[in-house]
Specification:
One of its GO terms (molecular function) is FAD binding. Residues 1-174 form the FAD-binding PCMH-type domain. Its cofactor is FAD. This is FAD-binding PCMH-type domain-containing protein. With 462 residues, the protein is α+β, with helices and mostly antiparallel strands. Among the domains are: 4-52, Uridine Diphospho-n-acetylenolpyruvylglucosamine Reductase, domain 2; 178-265 and 293-392, Vanillyl-alcohol Oxidase, Chain A, domain 3 (3-Layer(aba) Sandwich). The chain contains 12 helices and 17 strands. The protein has helices at 11-23, 76-86, 102-107, 115-118, 146-153, 191-201, 240-250, 266-274, 311-321, 372-388, 416-427, 430-441; strands spanning 4-6, 27-31, 48-52, 59-62, 67-71, 90-91, 125-131, 137-138, 163-170, 172-173, 178-186, 209-219, 226-236, 261-264, 297-305, 329-335, 358-366. A hairpin with a 4-residue loop joins strand 4 (59-62) and strand 5. The protein starts with a strand and ends in a 21-residue tail after the last helix.
Length: 462
């Protein structure tokens, strides 16, 4: 646990904490929204000070220029709310969980319901205010070499290089009203075939349309048995009539009908996605409540899929799900394609662009009443699911998403080759450049955690 927790209210206080930590041989960890799959921002095996940015969450929206400055302690819900205060025709390509902190979201290459239309959130970052290991604060153009760091922090784990105090982002246009739907299909409703077809449709459909999928097991209506349920949750940047026309032509298997769809403002859709099915009249003030949404214990892994999983292989997934109680496990699936196909792998540290149909999050969850034995069973089950998926996901390397950090991939970095085992999974060929930027700009490896970008002096001249 942290030796100290500091909640600065101005940037100079962050500078002072960093200097004091260096003088006292303490590591520094930074917490924004607190969404950290392995708890690396607030747990360590070394003495450390936690800088909690909760008081640094000012948001200044310039609707006239279509930009905003956002401090790293703000979360996505707050950002969406403040944008809507100024304009109903702008948005930001953020994630679907409002309490995620903007710093971690941008620093790890966060994605969301606008990714197929506009790319990652980090693609919209145009400037920053950054604190380095010497406790100096600068922006994108004020220091020689800052452009390398600017590239690295937008998806390369910003906390590996320093502390991004504030981000300038470019807002993106959205219609005044969008359309959402959430429909579910069970095995008895042909879920296997519908999901199999979804794999071909979702990454290639009109880029105004985002259809995510979620696989879980549920109790049957009589409560005596289990079945597989696939949920399809969607955002369409347009009216319901146009959506139905596209779906009828491109994805008739889902059999979407008008009563499944709801038109609403863009900002209300962000609240709807936080818990699909929120009433249309739910107060937008919920976006400002950092404690409004459920918290639970979980472990997750991630994969990228480049060829549709065969229908017969889906039956093996269903079989594994039937081993657990209903609701204990899920696979959440995010389609790519669209704008994502236009970026080369090296555009940002996040390399998983063209050629990837979708990304999967495989996870198990439990509560504080779950026994250690049951937790162990869930973790072993997750390993078996991950192993089963091996033939159907990306290879050489088997890629993972850094914001879904997974310490099972490896920790530490005595040599570059060792670090590359997990580094290449997250960043592919971009890992080498990240190591070079880190070695040049944080040579003493001050900002570090179990899977931070490592320092190797021999890499600086390559």
């Amino acid at each position: 646990m942290p030796s100290f927790i500091v909640t600065p209210i101005i940037y100079s206080q962050v500078q002072i904490v960093v200097l004091c930590a260096k003088n006292h041989q303490l590591q520094v960890r930074v917490r924004g929204g607190g969404h950290d799959f392995e708890g690396l921002s607030y747990v360590s095996d070394q003495p450390f000070v936690l800088i909690d940015l909760i008081n640094l969450r000012n948001i200044t929206v310039d609707a006239g220029n279509g930009t905003a400055w956002v401090q790293s302690g703000a979360n996505l819900g707050e950002l969406n709310y403040r944008i809507a205060e100024k304009s109903s025709e702008f948005a930001f390509p953020g994630g679907v969980w409002p309490t995620v902190g903007i710093g971690g979201f941008l620093g790890g290459g966060g994605y969301g319901s606008l990714t197929r239309k506009y790319g990652l959130g980090a693609d919209s970052v145009i400037d920053y205010r950054f604190l380095n290991y010497e406790s100096n604060v600068f922006d994108r153009v004020s220091v020689v070499g800052s452009e390398d760091i600017f590239w690295a922090v937008r998806g390369g784990t910003a906390s590996s290089f320093g502390i991004v105090l504030e981000w300038q982002i470019k807002l993106v246009p959205v219609p005044k009203n969008v359309t959402v739907f959430a429909v579910t299909r069970t095995l008895a409703q042909n879920a296997t075939w519908i999901f199999h077809q979804w794999q071909y449709v979702a990454p290639n459909i009109h880029r105004d349309l985002y259809i995510k999928a979620k696989i879980t097991s549920i109790k049957t209506a009589d409560g005596k048995e289990k079945t597989i349920q696939v949920s399809f949750e969607s955002l369409f940047l347009g009216p319901v009539d146009r959506l139905l026309n596209i779906m009828e032509k491109s994805f008739p298997e889902l059999d979407l009908v008008r009563k499944d769809c709801t038109e609403m403002s863009w900002v209300k859709s962000t609240l709807w996605f936080a818990n699909a099915g929120f009433p249309n009249g739910e107060s937008l003030e919920l976006l400002l409540n950092r404690n409004a949404f459920q918290k639970f214990y979980f472990k997750a892994k991630s994969d990228f899929v480049q060829e549709p999983i065969p229908a017969e292989a889906l039956d093996g997934i269903w079989k594994l799900f039937f081993e657990l109680e209903a609701g204990e496990a899920q696979i959440e699936i995010t389609p790519f394609g669209g704008k994502m196909d236009e970026f080369p792998e090296s555009a940002l540290p996040f390399p998983h662009r063209a050629g990837n149909l979708y990304m999967m999050l495989e996870g198990v969850q439990w509560d504080n009443k779950t026994s250690p034995e049951k937790q162990g069973k869930l973790l072993k089950w997750l390993e078996r699911l991950h192993m089963y998926l091996t033939p159907f996901v990306s290879k050489n390397p088997r890629a993972s998403y850094v914001n879904y950090n997974d310490l099972d991939l490896g920790v530490g970095s005595k040599t570059y080759d060792e670090a590359s085992v997990w580094g290449n999974m997250y960043f592919k060929n971009n890992f080498k450049r990240l190591v070079q930027v880190k070695t040049e700009h944080d040579p003493h490896n001050f900002f570090r955690h179990d899977q931070s970008i490592p320092v190797f002096p021999e890499m600086s001249s390559l």
